[in-house]
Write a structure and sequence with these properties.
Blueprint (H helix, E strand, L loop, with lengths): L2 H13 L3 H8 L9 H19 L15 H21 L1 H6 L1 H14 L9 H19 L4 H7 L3 H31 L2 H12 L4 H10 L4 H26 L11 H12 L5 H41 L2 H27 L4 H36 L8 H13 L1 H11 L5 H26 L2
Helix pairs in contact: 1-2, 1-3, 4-6, 4-7, 4-15, 6-15, 7-11, 7-14, 7-15, 8-19, 9-10, 9-16, 9-17, 9-19, 10-11, 10-12, 10-19, 11-14, 11-19, 12-16, 12-17, 12-18, 14-15, 17-18, 17-19, 18-19
Length: 447
């Protein structure tokens, strides 16, 4: 064997942390030729090291970042959340998956090949809890219900119809697939069904809030999110195709002033003062939520308090200066949560494999019945109410399924400028109500 081949085997042994074997390799003669005994030993050594390298996966006893290395685990997961933002916007696969799923996939990969401890770590669970709890009030500080109801116009009714459609579809989906979900996930089956209901009325923040409140296992949380995102990959292109070529619903309204007001909010600077104020407010709301609701009811109570504060606090002096900062920090925390959701590694893959069929059946019913109800509303009522024209129904459906960001993206891509700001407002309404709808759904079916 050539000298460079021996160096390569030596490097492999270093990478797999087999120091004694690496030292043994260095004791071999460094001459170009070996006797038969050394040659046989080196071949056997190379065969063993190759086998060890290929089996470095879930069962590896030597993760690069040990389970007790708190800052190492945090650094890896924060890096994953940051990298997902780049890959989710700059690469074709990343744009297809979206930044949240990209973050999950990256951390899943690191745990599966032995960079992170397979099965999760205490540091990852601590980061998951912290990011989830902070994200809830931060994102909901934009949910000003008074402002939304005044400014979103007929789209409010469209969104309520879309939300009821998701709720009805979830009941039918559970009736059809509930026994299969329970067999695959145990008690987590109903929890994930409720969380998917919340996600498809509000957004990801509601999904994780319901999972946290009802104590879903991390692997079940990741499995539900993975399968739902597969359906989202089909849903959003379909809505874009349906929206193509349809004109804006309004041309002579005061939408310009509404958009300028919204732009003024979005352009508020992110400063040290705004960050300090926002974090202080989020901490106080979380503390009050835990004091009033206890550990299990902390997030629902915090949601209620945050929405009430966002709706009734002075808009100009208090809310507008902190809303951009709160949204920015909240999204950062949400991506950290998605990164931690993939940290169990191959355990997530096993959960997805076990629950793929029932989750697919449940979500097929959810998406199909949601769309069917909206289509029936259009056929029966579009001549009687402007809330049932296809433009508003498509934006309302997008706000329910994907949240305000996807709704405004659809409105802007289709050229529906009059629906851009209302789509964000109704999306915030979804954030405000989805968690409570899901908890009621779970309570009703868990009897």
């Amino acid at each position: 064997m050539k000298r460079r081949q021996r160096y390569f085997v030596f490097l492999l042994s270093l990478l797999t942390l087999k120091w004694r074997n690496a030292e043994a390799l260095l004791t071999f003669p460094m001459t170009p030729r070996f006797n038969k005994q050394n040659n046989l030993q080196l071949r056997n050594f190379h065969r063993i090291q190759t086998r060890q390298l290929t089996t470095l996966s879930l069962n590896s006893p030597f993760p690069l970042v040990p389970a007790n290395d708190e800052w190492g685990n945090w650094a890896a997961l924060c890096s994953t959340a940051a990298l997902s933002q780049v890959l989710g916007t700059k690469t074709r696969i990343g744009r297809l998956l979206g930044a949240p799923v990209t973050a999950m996939a990256l951390s899943f990969f690191m745990a599966s090949i032995g960079i992170l401890q397979p099965g999760g770590t205490p540091a990852a669970r601590a980061l998951q809890l912290l990011s989830l709890q902070l994200a809830t009030p931060l994102i909901l500080l934009g949910a000003d219900l008074r402002d939304a109801m005044q400014r979103c116009g007929p789209l409010f009714l469209s969104f309520m119809v879309a939300s009821v459609a998701t709720l009805a579809a979830s009941f039918v989906g559970w009736t059809v697939s509930g026994s299969m979900l329970t067999a695959a996930l145990g008690r987590d089956g109903l929890v994930i069904a409720a969380a998917l209901l919340a996600k498809n009325i509000g957004g990801g923040i509601n999904y994780v809030a319901v999972c946290r409140t009802l104590n879903a296992s991390p692997t079940a949380v990741a499995a539900g999110l993975c399968v739902d995102n597969i359906f989202a990959l089909i849903y959003f292109p379909v809505t874009s195709i349906l929206a193509n070529g349809k004109p804006d619903v309004e041309t002579n309204t005061d939408k310009d002033s509404s958009q300028s007001d919204f732009a003024a909010v979005a352009d508020a600077p992110v400063t040290v003062q705004s960050i300090s104020n926002t974090l202080c407010l989020a901490a106080v709301l979380l503390w009050l939520g835990e004091r009033i609701g206890g550990p299990s009811g902390a997030l629902p109570v915090c949601t209620l308090l945050t929405v009430a504060f966002a709706s009734w606090a002075p808009r100009e002096k208090v809310m507008r200066p902190i809303q951009p900062t709160a949204n920015c920090l909240g999204l950062a925390c949400l991506y950290l949560f998605f990164a931690t959701a993939g940290a169990p590694g191959l355990a997530v893959a096993e959960s997805v494999k076990a629950s793929l069929l029932p989750l697919t059946l449940f979500l097929s019913m959810l998406y199909a019945i949601h769309g069917a109800i909206l289509f029936a509303g259009y056929l029966l009522l579009h001549q009687f109410s402007s809330a049932f024209v296809p433009q508003r129904l498509l934006v309302a459906s997008s706000a329910a399924i994907g949240g305000p960001a996807t709704a405004v993206a659809l409105a802007e891509a289709a050229g529906w400028k009059s629906l851009a700001v209302p789509s964000i407002l109704v999306g915030n309404i979804g954030y405000a109500i989805a968690t409570f709808c899901a908890l009621a759904f779970h309570s009703l079916l868990n009897r």
